[in-house]
Amino acid sequence: MARTYCQTVRDANDTASAPVGDEERRRVQKRTLTVVVASQILGGAGLAAGIAVGALLAEDLLGTDSLSGVPTALFTLGAATAAFLIGRLTQRWGRRLGLGLGFAAGGVGAIGVVIAAATDNAPLLFVSLFVYGAGTATNLQARYAGTDLADPSRRGTAISVALVATTFGAVAGPNLITPLGSLATALGLPVLSGPFLLAAVAYLAAGIVLMMLLRPDPYLLARRIADEMSTRASGGEPVAVPPPGKGAYLGAAVMVVTQIAMIAIMTMTPVHMRAHHHDLAAVGFVIGAHVAAMYLPSPITGILVDRIGRAAMTVASGVTLLAAGLVAALSPGSSLPYLTLALVLLGLGWNFGLIAGTALVVDATVPDNRPRTQGVIDVGIALSGAAGGGMSGVVMATAGYPVLSSAGGLLALLLVPALLLTHRPAGVRAKV
């Protein structure tokens, strides 16, 4: 199949016809990681708002906790839609446009949430949360930008750089709930709308950073390099694009299971804490610790994924998530230390699964099918998160937090049979 894309669509800085050498690839990779880090610091602050107070805001507006999982379901459904669109945009126009527009949409959604809270408008809240989910999808999709030009043996490390950068904003966000609430009150807005003020500014700023600075586009350059290699290998004959390998399906399964387990427990923890008379500062502390565990260990996780393998870290993810669910289920509702430990383990297990799963997907794809495949997989991740978030409120209301937490932990054990059934103990496939 002839690749007309690279002949017709180029980033302004990717138009050079000379072959791309290793030195140029490394230079662009270094610049790409720098820009991604800057955008992820901002994006992390944006995504923390929905995690920390989305369920509480819905509970206040709707007057019941049985529907408090709806916000998570909505912004994860929005993330699913955005992931699909970002994948298609990236395949055609590159990472810069796809990621930049995704963050911009997330910022618009956050503004809508603030307006809905101020006007007590539940339908607007739901629509805005859906649009706000685009920021969550973009924040996750940005991790792929770091892998486009990375050496195959260092893809886990490249993924980790993007994720750890999210820590700074994501941890600060929940811990700013109280001052942001005071700011919202001073502006005549509901106290729980404060974190979404931060999200609006953070997401819009992240979009601007990517649109202005992600040049040359790493995906377009990676695709050009792959085209040059194919042309040399085939003697100038057109080469058909291979389908994704089975590692992509395993990677998708790993990320879907970890997302369901994490979202279900995390979403209902603030509601569980408020029912046991913890204040917003305590909720912010626990969620902040959870988000830190989701992202801060990334450099170590990335090294482990590259050195001891994707399979070992997948098993580690399942075991850690099981421990998180059991600790959450057995912890007294009044115990801040035990709840914090449970949420830290929850974030850590998610981190192991996300980096290992992402590396599996990148290993099993080539530039010509990578963004489209990544977008479809992230749709599955977001939809699974929506299901976990939507059902978590119902399970919480009917069976209680301990049952919800135990079920989430046990679900994570599905990673082990999935790994045994599909994993091929071969080395990393060296693809551009």
Polypeptide structure, described:
This protein is mainly alpha-helical. Helix content is 78%, strand content 0%. It has 17 helices and no strands. Helix 2 packs parallel to helix 4 (95-119), helix 10 runs parallel beside helix 15 (370-398) and helix 13 packs antiparallel against helix 14 (336-363). The longest helix has 41 residues, at 22-62. The two termini are 19 Å apart. Residues 1-17 and 425-432 have low confidence and may be disordered.
Topology of helices and strands:
Layout: H1 5-8, H2 22-62, H3 70-93, H4 95-119, H5 122-145, H6 155-175, H7 177-186, H8 194-213, H9 218-234, H10 246-275, H11 280-295, H12 298-307, H13 310-330, H14 336-363, H15 370-398, H16 401-411, H17 415-422
Helix pairs in contact: 2-3, 2-4, 2-5, 2-6, 2-8, 2-10, 3-4, 3-5, 3-15, 4-5, 4-8, 5-6, 5-15, 6-11, 6-12, 6-14, 7-8, 10-11, 10-13, 10-14, 10-15, 10-16, 10-17, 11-14, 12-13, 12-14, 13-14, 13-16, 15-16
Descriptors for this entry?
432 residues; mainly alpha; 17 helices; disordered N terminus; disordered C terminus
